[in-house]
User: Fold this.
Amino acid sequence: MKTAASLVIAAATLVMGTPVWAQFAKPEDAIKYRQSVMFLMSQHVGRIGAMVSGKAPYDAQAAVDNAALVAELSKRPWPAFVAGSDKGAIPTRAKTEIWVEQQKFKENQEKLMAETAKLLEAAKTNNLDNLKAAFGPTGGACKNCHDTYRKDV
Ligand code: HEC
Assistant:
């Protein structure tokens, strides 16, 4: 039985080729992965935002810690936008344009990674004004991509 089942799987793999979401067991895993990273990123951006807007006291070390995490997380959602994950067993707000305009979508990713790297540098100066100056462009990079590639709810 076991051998028969493996043969069927092997045959199916030969026919279909390796699925493009091979890193993920199913499309919905890729969707959940990118949504989870985005959610985490927004939580940590929010903590910096609270300091920038004066809703939370400025804590230089916390700013560095949060900015370091955001800079790292900003690299992570992209491999999860695999072809075939424009829909899955769970809802996704990713627009199908992502898979049509791949170069433009990539430019939006690069913009975010560049801005979060600058945000981290700014945080490391331990100066709230520098942090404030770098925060706007980071938020802008999130917004620009969402305006173009994320469906409204
Ligand atoms: C290159 C494009 C792009 C950039 C840049 C980007 N996002 Fe997103 N974001 C998306 C897309 C597309 C989705 C929808 C993902 C899905 O539902 O599959 C999304 C979803 C989200 C969500 C909803 C997650 C959930 O729980 O469903 C949050 C929160 C979010 N982004 C926050 C951010 C923040 C904060 C930044 C900036 C620090 C950012 N995003 C930068 C494209 C982007």
